[in-house]
């Protein structure tokens, strides 16, 4: 799905630019780059026989950790700082009609992506919030197909959380 995610992100760069949802547009630039990088890293891993993710998938086990109090503090402070920076850029340097919401969903997406990379299960909570807020933001911007897509993402976030809990093994 790396390639599909990358292509989707490239498309949404233009959709969000046209709709003046600038922070989500910028996040999709980042996500497109990460998707293609992830694809090449994954291919490299497969060619070396180091496909750890495939090994876990075949065993139907998902390893994850829970957020620690120290991480929660750092996440909270980082979220506030990132939000403030994105909001200030959007409100001072763009004509964004939704700087508060755009900054919030983008900030939470950045945090959620980091938490996913660290296999912290609470990243699903972040994605549920992002996806539900995005449904509303895309509704008020008239992006109805995107709104529907984020409705599906919200359902997927609930399902992902359930699967991680069901098949998961806590580590760390």
Give an overview in words:
The chain contains 7 helices and 2 strands. By secondary structure, it is mainly α. Helix 1 packs antiparallel against helix 2 and helix 5 runs antiparallel to helix 6. The longest helix has 26 residues. About 3% of the residues have low confidence.
List keywords for this structure.
single chain; 7 helices; 172 residues; globular; mainly alpha; 2 strands
Q: How would you summarize the topology of this molecule?
A:
Elements: H1 2-18, H2 22-47, H3 52-59, E1 62-64, H4 69-93, H5 99-117, H6 123-140, H7 144-167, E2 168-170
Parallel strand pairs: 1-2
Strand content: under 5%
Which structural class do you get from the secondary structure elements? mainly alpha
The arrangement of helices and strands along the chain is HHHEHHHHE
Q: What percent of the residues sit in helical stretches (DSSP H or I)?
A: over 70%
Mean pLDDT across all residues, rounded? 88
